[in-house]
């Protein structure tokens, strides 16, 4: 995607202005790498970024692609992996969701203890029917979550997720820039990790195995 210099400068300012609190922000037609801040990442324990105890990413109120209202408490007892994206993303989003499906397989008999969630940042186009079809390409147990524009903005703020519409060449076309990475919660519903895009499924699976073995009290 080629951007006009004024648009590129505008987006750079947005990213720089939020760099202290946001993980990696990408345009969805490009990959990349970056980091997220958190309370003392423990590189010796986890491959990904330890954000245990963070006072954000605590809950959400959204509707899944079956029409059922959902909150974090609905998934207590499972590891939860949350990715923010949109169905028309050509690269980062499908790659990330496919890797989550690989992680579930790598967990073997514990695979059913992982709940994958996809939260759309584009509810304008991502209808429940489209989200249901999209998720069917990854894993049948994964759920897509959708809200009103106001709910989407609220959950993005709670998770410190950046997203913005980027106009396309045609009058009615656009893409979405957004934070790219996976938030991981332990079986007690506590935020534990942020996995940067591009880290690969093997590292994430190893971290999840540690979380499953750790006491949750």
CATH architecture title: 3-Layer(aba) Sandwich
- Alpha-carbon distance between the termini? 47 Å
Count of helical regions = 5
Per CATH, the superfamily is Glutaredoxin
Note the overall shape: globular
Residue share in β-strands: 15-25%
Helix fraction? 25-40%
What's the average pLDDT? Answer: 84
Largest sheet: 8 strands, mixed
Question: Total number of β-strand segments?
Answer: 11
Low-confidence stretches: 1-22, 29-44
- What topology, given as strand order, has the largest sheet? 2-11-10-5-6-7-3-4
Order of helices and strands: HEEEEEHEHEHEEEEH
Structural class: alpha+beta
What is the CATH topology descriptor?
Glutaredoxin
Pfam family, one: SCO1-SenC
Keywords: Copper, Disulfide bond, Metal-binding
Domain Thioredoxin: 51-217
GO molecular function: metal ion binding
Name its key features.
11 strands, Glutaredoxin, globular, single chain, alpha+beta, eight-stranded mixed sheet, about 25% strand, about 220 residues
Compact summary:
The protein is an alpha+beta fold and 217 residues long. Helices cover 27% and strands 23% of the residues.
Please give a structural write-up.
It is a single chain. This protein is of the alpha+beta class. The protein has a single domain, classed as Glutaredoxin (3-Layer(aba) Sandwich). 27% of the residues lie in helices and 23% in strands. It has helices spanning 5-17, 92-106, 128-135, 149-158, 201-213; strands at 25-27, 49-50, 62-64, 69-70, 79-85, 114-120, 143-146, 163-167, 174-179, 181-185, 191-196. It has an eight-stranded mixed sheet with strand order 2-11-10-5-6-7-3-4. The protein has a three-stranded antiparallel sheet with strand order 1-9-8, with no helix packed on it. α2 links the parallel β5 and β6 (114-120). α2 (92-106) crosses α5. The termini are far apart.
